[in-house]
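Anyone able to model this chain together with 2-oxoglutaric acid?
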Amino acid sequence: MSSTIDEKSTGQESVSNLPKHFMRSENEKPEDSKAIEGIQVPIISLSQPNKDVLVRELSKACSEWGIFALTDHGIPQSLLDQLRYVGEEFFKLSEEEKQKHASNPSFGNFEGYATKMVRNYGEKNEWVDYYFHLMHPPGKVNHQAWPEHPPSYRNVTEEYTKEVLRVNFTILELLSEGLGLEDKSILKSKLGGDEIELEMKINMYPPCPQPVLVLGVEPHTDMSALTVLVPNDVPGLQVWKDGNWIAVECLPNALYVHIGDQIEVLSNGEYKSVLHRSMVNKERSRMSWAVFSTPPHDAVIGPLQSLVNNEKPSKYSSKTFAEYRYRKINRLPQ
Ligand SMILES: O=C(O)CCC(=O)C(=O)O
Ligand SMILES: [Fe+2]
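re: yes, here you go
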C-alpha cells in the first residue's frame, strides 16, 4: 500500500527531518558500512591499438571487478550532454506532470515514471525517483511511454540508442574473445542478435537531509547482460569488491559498464555480475542514466556449452529470461 502523492516526502524541496521509512538498519546504512575512497575501477580505452591487450585488460576487469570505466567509446560528449539535459528537464516538471506518465507495475506496465519517495508499508524505501522505458528493438518500442517533455527527448534518445547499441555489440564481441571462443558473435547471438532489448532507466536522487542514513538504490546486481551507466557529476555509485564497498570516482565522459547476471551465467561465472549500490547527496540532486541490455524474454540463457566440461561443470541452470526476471523480481532462488 502506498500513500498519495501529496504525502510525497520530498521533491525539489528537501525535508528537514528524515521520515523513518527511509532510515536503514545498522550495518546497512552508509555511516556503518563506509566505502573505501581513492581506488579507481579499471579504465578501458577503446582506442587501445593492440587488440590482444584490449581483450586481456577487458576480461581481467570483468573477472575481477565486473565493472569498468570505458573511455574513447566514440559517443560525442555533446550527445552525452544532451542526454543529461533532456533527462534533467523531465525531472524538473511538477510532480503532477510527471505522474501523467506514471508506470503501473501491478497492471504489468513497467514503463514510465515511478517514485519510491512515497511511503510503502513493506520495506525500507529507496531515496529515488526514476523513469523506465524500452529503447530497442524498434518493433517493441512504444513512444507513447517516453517523456513528452522536453520535445527533443525523443531525438536525443534515439540518437543515443544507436550509439549505446554499437558499444554493447563491441563489448560483447571483445568479451567473447576474452572467453577464448572462436565465434566472436556468440554472446551477441545468444542475447538475441539485433533483437537484443535496451531499456533506459533514468535515476533521480533528490537532495537528502541525512544522506548517511539512507540508500538511493539498495545493494543489487543487475539482471541485464550489460548495463551502460552515465552519471551526472554528483558522486554516489559504490561497488563491492573483495569484502569492501568501493566509492567509484566517475570520470566526466566515461561510460560505466557493469557486467549483469546474464553475462555471468553465459560465461559460467568467468565474468562477475557486480554488486553495487548508490548513495545520495545532502545538497545536490544525483542523477544517472542506466541502459540495460537484455535478451528477448523467450531467449533461453544458460552457460555456453563450449565453456562447460568435466573440470568446469555448469554453475547455473538454463532458463528463459522471462523466468529469470520473474524469479529475480520476486526474490525466488534461481
Ligand atoms: O545510480 C547509480 O549509479 C546506479 C543505479 C543502479 O544501479 C540501477 O539503476 O540499477
Ligand atoms: Fe544497478
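The radius of gyration is 20 Å.
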